[in-house]
Amino acid sequence: MSKILLQTTISDCFDDWGIDRFALLAGKLRTAGHEVVARNRSDKSGDDPILSRLDELGFDQLWLMAVDSGDGLTAADAEAILRFRCNGGGVLTARDHQDLGCCVLRLGSLGRVNQFHDPTVDQRLLCDDKDTPSICWPNYHSGANGDYQPVFAEEPPHELLRTSRTESGRIEWFPAHPHEGAVSATVPFASVLAQGRSTATGRRFNLAVAMDGETGPDGRPMGRALAESTFHHFADYNWDVDRGAPSFVAEPPGGQIKADPSRLAVFTDYVRNLASWLHPAAVAAAEADDEFRSLSRS
């Protein structure tokens, strides 16, 4: 099992998306047998004492909830995360609409698969969620907080989407959110894991991008990574609206998950799959299996 750092990019703040609003996620990971350290950024200015030394502290995975407006990682924090991946550590990032979480741009290739607001682009062509005019592109409207959204994926499904609890053998629903961000497979070792569909425009958009097979400057394999279009796939409020949200959340919640929690239970297989897939030993095992098949064919 893994030692996981579940971390936000803001310091303690009751009325924001702090780490206490991801308690259900932490609980699911612990129930699956993982050791989880869940924390916000240090309240002190400057480098975070954990993130800036991530590669030295014995963690296997970083689940980074990028909930800041751009200042969530210092240069030292980002460099330590890059070293962590170069040493084989697994990293998940989850941002949100427009520029929320754009600190992940510091994370090399993992930053490049995230798309943030570009003022040179004609926003009239790209704005998807028109219900919240204060939020600019990217802002894909997959549904209300507290509702489900259908997941579209190629066959056969990626191992991250597999489950034994549906007839299709894959996870078919994610928690919805009114304005998701944008992630794209813009590097050779990245692939689109799954797509959603806007309830406002019908546009397809990427829900997550998986990164596997990247090598570091020394030629060694880097840890796997996954970029999620929004941290709301994992937030307590999106799993259980009765948990509440910060006061600035104005959109009315939905009731689908509360009325039928069975599809959310299936979605938690995705959480378990992620924790297994991101573990460094899983990468080594996959490489050994590939080498064995190659030798078998020769």
Please give a structural write-up.
With 298 residues, this protein is α/β, with parallel strands linked by helices. It has one domain: 3-Layer(aba) Sandwich (Rossmann fold), CATH 3.40.50.880. 24% of the residues lie in helices and 17% in strands. It is built from eight helices and eleven strands. The strands form three sheets. Strands 2-1-3-4-11-10-9 form a seven-stranded mixed beta sheet, with helices on both faces. The chain starts with a strand and ends with a helix. The mean pLDDT is 91. This is ThuA-like domain-containing protein.
Q: Which structural traits does this protein have?
A:
298 residues; alpha/beta; two-stranded antiparallel sheet; ThuA-like domain-containing protein; Rossmann fold; 7-stranded mixed β-sheet
Helix content: 10-25%
| DSSP E strands, number | 11
Distance between the termini: 34 Å
Low-confidence stretches: none
What's the gist of this structure?
It is built from 8 helices and 11 strands.
